[in-house]
């Protein structure tokens, strides 16, 4: 069975088979739809179903049942159950174009037991243009890629990253650990649709786990000393104190941000920790009865993001104002989605 899919804004029409994802069909027909991980984990390909309905072989992690009942779907996993009229959930935001670069390592140093600060420079480029929140792909010798979010704002040809070691990780526990100043890396950047929506001028609630703080740091740096900076509440979660590798630096951000409230939260703290305990999203729901007026940014563990969306929507948060980047780790195979 083949169905007709129409993109409401552009009036582009393409055909999609009943056992084919909307994204795969769109790409085959050269119709551009925002997308990223293609595994249902990041939420970038969220669309609104203006007409029609979809089916999933497995319900995706980056979509809550609430979002689905409000007419949202993930194009990379959803298959048409009839003719459709769709609309990208957030419209098309113009992003700087991605390019392949030969980057040089200028610094690589541990910032905690499991997190490494990596600094890269791209010779011959004056300004690396990206939106704070976006990420790069490192191309490994076998051609596979690993994604890491820019942890600094665009300033010249340099960019910083915060990288957590993954047990058995080919890059984070192998290549990165042997890396030295002067080494070269092939990278593609900028990538992804996670960015600060400056048009959404609500108070900001930002929630990160672990190195999910990296793109949030870049976004908040872009707001520093900005007279239009909205009030910011930042919740940062980890398991133990060593996960909060930027604690001192973040505590100083209040001087350069308007109404900055920072709440670090640990789920497996030892007796020495006198801060908040539990899961970071639980701390938010304990502190906020009503999230209906916030713009919410979530980054890090896909499980935290899923759980946070469920409980924040329960507190009145609007799906239109939740922006998220899940650090998914399964690689989509190269080639068509
Ligand atoms: C858009 C995006 C941005 C990202 N930004 C960052 C960032 O700024 N900093 C950062 O530290 N990480 C980030 N990540 C996560 C990072 O890309 C992965 O952790 C990466 O796979 C690690 O590569 P590796 O070669 O060390 O491990 P791999 O060789 O890819 O994996 C080894 C094993 O560990 C598992 N695994 C890999 N990553 C994870 C994980 N995160 N959690 C649980 N299990 C995992 C794999 O499934 C596999 O079984 C980001 C991911 C995405 C999608």
List keywords for this structure.
Elongation Factor Tu (Ef-tu), domain 3, six-stranded parallel beta sheet, Ubiquitin-like (UB roll), 17% helix, globular, 337 residues, 7 helices, 19 strands, 3 domains, Rossmann fold, binds flavin-adenine dinucleotide, alpha/beta, six-stranded antiparallel beta sheet
**What is the C-level CATH assignment of the largest domain?**
Alpha Beta
CATH topology of the largest domain: Rossmann fold
Radius of gyration: 20 Å
Question: Roughly what is the average pLDDT, rounded to an integer?
Answer: 93
Percent helix, as a range, is: 10-25%
Number of domains: 3
Low-confidence stretches: 332-337
Quickly give the CATH architecture of the largest domain: 3-Layer(aba) Sandwich
Secondary-structure element order, N to C: EEHEEHEEEEEEEEHEEHEHEEHEHE
Query: Beta fraction of the residues?
Result: 25-35%
Span between termini: 19 Å
Give a quick account of the main beta sheet: strands, pairing sense, barrel closure.
6 strands, antiparallel
CATH superfamily of the largest domain: Nucleotide-binding domain of ferredoxin-NADP reductase (FNR) module
Number of helices: 7
Report the strand count: 19
Ligand types:
flavin-adenine dinucleotide
Shape: globular
Structural class: alpha/beta
Strand order of the largest sheet: 11-10-13-8-9-12
